[in-house]
Amino acid sequence: MTETESRAALIPPPAPNADELRDLGFGRVLAQQTRGRFIQKDGSPNTRKFGLGAQRWERFYRQSQSVSWPVFLIWLLGLELLAIGVFALGYDALGSGALGGTETLGLADPFLRAFAFSVGVFTTVGTGPLHPVCSTAIWLAAIESLAGPLAIVLSGGLIIARLLRPRSRIQFSESAVVAPYGQGRGFMFRVINARPSELNEVRVRVNLAWFEDVGGKRRRRFEPLTLERSEVEFFTLHWTVVHPIDEKSPLRGVTPESLRAAEAEFLVNISGLEDLFSTRVSARTSYFWDEVRWDAKFADMFVPSPDDVITVDVERLDRFDRLAEGITAAPSPAER
Length: 336
Hints:
The chain has 336 residues and is α+β, with helices and mostly antiparallel strands. It folds into two domains: 56-164, Helix Hairpins; 170-335, G protein-activated inward rectifier potassium channel 1 (Immunoglobulin-like, Sandwich).
């Protein structure tokens, strides 16, 4: 190694600038090369990883904890019936002499007799007059008598995990709006807690990812948006999150055309303290440029109540009122 190379090795790499430190964890190079959105509407990251194998069991467990209860119960029942049916096919394949006591059931179909016996063994409720006769049927029944309780225990574990897992059900408005705000305009979206349990100390962060021309090159930049309120102590009703568009805002002077040309995406992360489990839960979503409504404002969600209880209609979360054309699609004097 020459003296010049030795000196070059001692020179530390240049420190990243502020824009590079705001890539939110996606990576500086990747952020410039990627097209499309970073976060899906349901909050899941728009990413995929290879080289880790199929991870079927991990994916199955994750899906079993995230799907709705009706879908989960259908999955559970379907898998158990499938296992019982597979053993029933095994008994049926051994012939009519593999099971004894079938004459008392009154079932002519050999598979139904085998299925009835398999249900009794798998669920450990008993098989009644049915019993295995040949040695192969005895071994098959022994295997099923071990697999059945194990499957029931695993199913119960999944159910308990679902019941004890703290989760949020924060519902976001389908679209964001650029609506009148103060003497100018603001970027807004609405959220509501769709669970009976309460959320406290709720915090929200919004980051803007878009392309800008920097030094004659098109580069993606990440800008944190200052909010009117970034935290609320009590989240019992809905919350309209507002970013005022003024002279200090990254969105100053923005129009529908410039937002589309910049391929803008608003990344939203919200977290709060769930009172039932006393733990923090979070939710994410994003609004792409074509999911932002202009010349509109959110409709009122409050409804009258005869007992003086503050009431909101959740079905109005996505409703907005149209304004005159050009009210918010054009920059306001407050942005100059």
